[in-house]
Amino acid sequence: MANSDEIAEIRRAVRALCADFSGAYWREKDCARAYPGEFVDALTKAGFLSALIPEAYGGAGLKLNAAVAIMEEIQASGCNGASAHAQMYIMNTLLKYGSEDQKRNYLPDIASGKLRLQAFGVSEPASGTDTLSLRTVAERDGDEYVINGQKIWTSRAEHSDLMLLLARTKPREEVMRKTEGLSVFLVDMRTVVGPKTASGGGMSIKPIRTMMNHSTTEIFFDDMRIPASALVGEEGKGFRYILSGMNAERILIAAECVGDAKWFIDKAANYGKERNVFGRAIGQNQGVQFPIARCYAQMRAAELMVHHAAKVYDKGGNPGAEANMAKLLASEASWAAADMCVQTLGGFGFAEEYDVERKFREARLYTVAPISTNLILSYIAEHVLGLPRSY
Questions:
Q1: In terms of Cα–Cα distance, which of 90, 91, 85, 86 is closest to 72?
Q2: Which of 49, 88, 286, 311 is the most buried (most CB within 10 A)?
Q3: What is the residue-wise DSSP string for 240-286?
């Protein structure tokens, strides 16, 4: 793991990069619902998005605690790491279970920025977070797999070259355990996007406009053919592979939430010092002070849980409980801070130029995705407290 001095330097470097992307940049992208490609390119060039890629493949070879610092600082600087965070957590599945050929063929180009690995095809309209009920099917046909089905909420698909796809390779009724029969594929989207032809195609991408600029999409597969070499690990073991990656995802997104909370708290505290009403700074009033102080305490508690979860992950343990609790506490802390910040700024909290309303909309996502608060509570109840399964 990176030591404290290394982490401090990483944080400084991320802040310096983010300083080149002001609120005006993000407001422009948000208004146009445009992908912040310049920001993603800058993160790539600086080596931040390849932090988890081993040095042998052109990356920095860092641990998750370094990635946590990167994503937290991006958010705390007022930027939006959701434009690039998938490359961090998707990487885990490829690093742990990908073949040597897959790593050698793709990781150096991902590290250099020649290729983007940003799309994660898991959720479906009929299954949502009930991943074991997904219906997208991959059937083996000689040296290829033929994919048919549909995915939803596959963010950044229009801006990615590669996608990690979860599909069913054996019918659910034919497997011994319900967690079997799902497989992971590393799909090169450059050859399959477009109408089905003899030479390729079979994948169509439909953007979904949402309340925040999240570049999310719906994807349809129509007899899409991919080489058998796209299979990651063993056929039928994909659910376990994805779960491992989801722990990293939840920890990293929890770090982003901590960064968001810090941004909202700083914004509110500074406004409280500067805004004068009735002849005094509003921050002198306990009615303003107390909500800010409470959000700060809530954020610090979540921050400790995030760092603990990353430590468990980096030591090779199973951080399922820690990752879920980190995501729960951090998402609630960021949303509480967002609400507090709007209340503190009053009317100015709704004005675009202050960036609060944009960050407010972005922060709302994380109590719902990538896993809802209720499902996390169900996980804790069953797997930590030993209560009967509720679903």
A1: 85
A2: 49
A3: HHHHHHHHHHHHHHHHHHHHHHHHHHHHHHHHHHH-EETTEEGGGSH
Per CATH, the number for 118-236 is 2.40.110.10
141 vs 161: CA distance, rounded Å: 24
Integer Cα distance of 98 and 230 in angstroms: 9
Distances (CA, A) of 12 to 46, 70, 83, 297, 365: 13, 10, 21, 24, 27
Which has the closest alpha carbon to 259: 118, 81, 85?
81
**What's the CATH superfamily of 239-384?**
Butyryl-CoA Dehydrogenase, subunit A, domain 3 (1.20.140.10)
Global pTM exceeds 0.90: yes
What is the predicted pLDDT for the residue at 373? 95
CATH 1.10.540.10 residue ranges in the chain? 4-116
Measured in degrees and rounded to the nearest 5, phi and psi for residue 321 equal -65, -45
Give the separation between CA 241 and CA 236, rounded to whole angstroms.
10
Does residue 154 surpass a pLDDT of 80?
yes
Residue 161 sits at the vertex; the CA angle it makes with 232 and 36, to the nearest 5 degrees, is 130
pLDDT of residue 197: 77
Can you spell out the DSSP letters for 48-81? STTTTS-GGGTS----HHHHHHHHHHHHHTT--G
Q: What is the pLDDT of residues 85-101, one digit of tens each?
A: 998 888 889 999 999 99
User: And the tokens for 189?
Assistant: 């989207």
Cα separation, 91 vs 96, whole angstroms: 9
Q: Per-residue confidence at 244, pLDDT binned at 50, 70, 90?
A: confident
Angle of helix 85-97 relative to helix 238-274, nearest 10 degrees, comes to 150
Q: Identify the pLDDT of residue 218.
A: 97
